[in-house]
């Protein structure tokens, strides 16, 4: 494992994700690279051009100093290599540029709740998920790091566009000796079709040598199905291939009046799409 990229904005949500990344990086022997992005054009419009340039430069230097101190503070109890960078530009674009330059194995981002009536997906996290060709680990603000004993891998047996790269999932499972709960939510009760059975066998073969079970639950709403399953079968990570904003938003947001039980508990590993 080479490195993890962890965007930070000095919020509690990103600090929580940074701590999680350090713990995971220590186990997986990965360097943790922190990135803070300073947007261009946030300064007061009626300032002179030179004043704005100077103020922007001052903000960048201030963030560099703060980031350095933050990394020192949160990594002092971890045996893991770290680096820190501050860049200027659009957050999602700079994150992806840095990921490309460092050939990051995983992007780890925090996620902050905004109340029952709002999405808790920040615009930057959402944008990176939609644009990225990298696997991502999204850490809810209320989640805390713990040994990854169980991973729930939700898969759609009707979808042939599965994750094309599950290496990060396999690496985590191997290092932690995790049990893999392969989960399929069917909308109607009944036996799976021949095509679904073939896909099931293919998914099973991806996890040869690991502890794994195959589980089918029935629910007209896939998200409720996943939620209900996790309520009775706790896991430390939920993994899936999902790039659509609305689907991911519902996973960690509000569905009607019911909050997902794992909204503030379980990190979501978003795998590369096939």
From TrEMBL:
Annotated InterPro entries: Universal_stress_UspA, UspA
CDD domains: USP-like (cd00293)
Cross-referenced Pfam families: Usp
UspA domain: residues covered: 1-140
Source taxon at top rank: Bacteria
Protein family (similarity comment): Belongs to the universal stress protein A family.
Protein name (database record): Universal stress protein
Organism: Hanamia caeni
Taxonomic lineage: Bacteria, Pseudomonadati, Bacteroidota, Chitinophagia, Chitinophagales
């Amino acid at each position: 494992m080479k490195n993890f990229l962890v965007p930070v904005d000095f919020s509690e949500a990103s600090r929580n994700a940074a701590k999680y990344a350090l713990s995971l990086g220590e186990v997986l022997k990965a360097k943790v690279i922190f990135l803070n992005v300073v947007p261009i054009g946030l300064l007061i419009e009626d300032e002179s051009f030179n004043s704005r340039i100077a103020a922007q430069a001052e903000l960048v230097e201030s963030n560099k100093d703060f980031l350095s101190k933050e990394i020192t503070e949160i990594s002092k109890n971890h045996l893991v290599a770290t680096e820190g960078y501050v860049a200027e530009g659009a957050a999602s674009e700079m994150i992806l540029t840095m990921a490309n330059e460092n050939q990051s194995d995983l992007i780890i981002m925090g996620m902050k709740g905004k109340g029952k009536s709002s999405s808790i997906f920040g615009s930057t996290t959402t944008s990176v998920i939609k644009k990225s060709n990298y696997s991502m680990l999204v850490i809810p603000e209320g989640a805390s790091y713990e040994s990854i004993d169980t991973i729930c891998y939700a898969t759609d047996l009707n979808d042939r566009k599965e994750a094309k790269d599950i290496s990060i999932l396999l690496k985590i499972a191997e290092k932690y000796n995790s049990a893999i709960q392969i989960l399929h939510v069917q909308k109607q009760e009944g036996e799976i079709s021949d095509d679904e059975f073939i896909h099931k066998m293919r998914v099973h073969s991806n996890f040869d040598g690991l502890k794994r079970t195959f589980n089918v639950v029935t629910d007209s709403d896939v998200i409720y199905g996943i939620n209900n399953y996790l309520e009775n079968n706790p896991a430390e990570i939920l993994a899936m291939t999902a790039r659509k904003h609305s689907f991911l938003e519902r996973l960690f947001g509000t569905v009607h009046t019911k909050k997902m039980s794992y909204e503030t508990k379980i990190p979501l590993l978003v795998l590369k799409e096939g």
